Amino acid sequence: MTSTVTVSNIGGPRLTLGFDRFDRLDLDRHLAVHGRLRAPALDDLVRMAEQVDLRGRGGAGFPFARKLMAVAARVEHPAADRTALLPGERGDERGSSEDVVVVVNGAEGEPGSAKDKVLLGRAPHLVLDGAQIAANALGTQRIVLAVESDEAARSVRAAISERRMPARVVRLTERFISGESGAVIRAINGETPIPPGVKVRASDSGVDGFPTLLSNTETFAQLAVLVSLGPDLYASAGTEDEPGTTLLTIGGTQVVEAPLGTSLRAVLDQCEVPPSPGVLVGGYHGMWLDPVAVSRAVLSRAGMRRVGGTVGAGIILPLAQGTCPLGEVTRIASYLAAQSAGQCGPCRLGLPDVVRSLMALTEGAGTVEDVRRAAGVGRGRGACSHPDGTARFVLSAMEAFAADIDAHRWGGGCGQSTYGVLPLPVPDGTEGRVAIDWSRCDGHGLCAYLVPELIQLDRYGFPVVLGTDIPSWMEKDVQKAVAMCPALALRVVGGVPGAPSRR
């Protein structure tokens, strides 16, 4: 994938230094460009990270110094000294710094993001420098890199071999929720790679139950640049409150390194993005900005807050002219509903209701209030942040595309087709959808009882099917519903393994 992504910078490169000369920086090239690794002591590293307020670049923006201190505190105060242990904790075993694990979260399950894949593919030694700096400060050699693509895995393994360092590479499943910290830890531990139902901090109990420092790929690369430049020179780019640069993925195909504080318009101009009816900032858990907000937006946490946006994981998706905005929003919401882990009510039932309300609004039969009500039901109550992020994406669209929504509400449509310009994964042929043979359906209603997430009954007792891909966690339920349909009217269109298609 990285070979199809163009990389540029505004104001000079740091993370992307050397990209103009080399497709990939092997160890010799890395040393020539970035110099030899320095390894500050823990206190010095914490001080540097605090001085520039280094934040995670994975979306949450958590202060990196606090993560370091949380893990260090767990080493200094073993779990055996506490009256109660968290699930998975191992007592005395966790008191040794040698058991601490440093995890580079290279999961980039969101279709519109490419920046971390670019770093892993083209500057793997910069990422490994950051991981090794953190590991040395914490007194451990245990480093795990969790990646999603074969290309990233090959690049990282080659870099590890060049350095002869004891690091492990774990391949993750490519899906939207795979980057959630709990899902990454579970995947590394050989468990089902979904977020845990009960939140446990990685610094308390992570890989193998030991204290774990987990942060995303760019964060470790930023840490390496910080140690290499020193806090003062690092802070020469960016703003006084938010120093440094950040990586952004524009439209899924361009990666730009820009100083924090750069205007959004400057980044879009750099990428030759024409005027747009709306720009999504922060990715599919982010927020939509209308053209007025886009013209005022600044790429920093404070700057984005002022216009109702977020930097998030640095994903910027302009919506092209000529496609139906509400149709695009509904399409992505359908994808997000199918990507859930399916382990809690807000995802299993709440997200399908959001999709149904959007479909009704698109057809002119629903209202914005219906959408807001559906999106608000599961907020703050899910096993992870997926319901909240999806609600944020949908609700911001209600504001940014108010004129288009009015056209659908009162005119039956906006006159534009939905061309699917927002990026989604390329189907692999296994996706399937539920369909009804109406020449057979007698309205028994059993299907709605067996798979209420995908089928509901209208006031006459006939099924109304949600037109989304069947989530992987529902495949067995769908197979059961197809097999038990008394009229043999229920079928699967597409590729769910083991399901009778009745086509």
From TrEMBL:
Q: Where is the NADH-ubiquinone oxidoreductase 51kDa subunit iron-sulphur binding domain?
A: 326-371
MF term (GO), any: NADH dehydrogenase activity
GO biological process, any: cellular respiration
Q: Is Nucleus given among the entry's keywords?
A: no
Q: What cofactor does its activity depend on?
A: FMN; [4Fe-4S] cluster
In terms of superkingdom, the source organism counts as Bacteria
Record flagged with keyword Repeat: no
Matching entries from Pfam families are given as:
Complex1_51K, Fer4_15, NADH_4Fe-4S
Per UniProt, the keywords (alphabetical) are: 4Fe-4S, Flavoprotein, FMN, Iron, Iron-sulfur, Metal-binding, Ubiquinone
User: Member of which family?
Assistant: Belongs to the complex I 51 kDa subunit family.
Q: What is this protein called?
A: NADH:ubiquinone oxidoreductase subunit F (NADH-binding)/ferredoxin
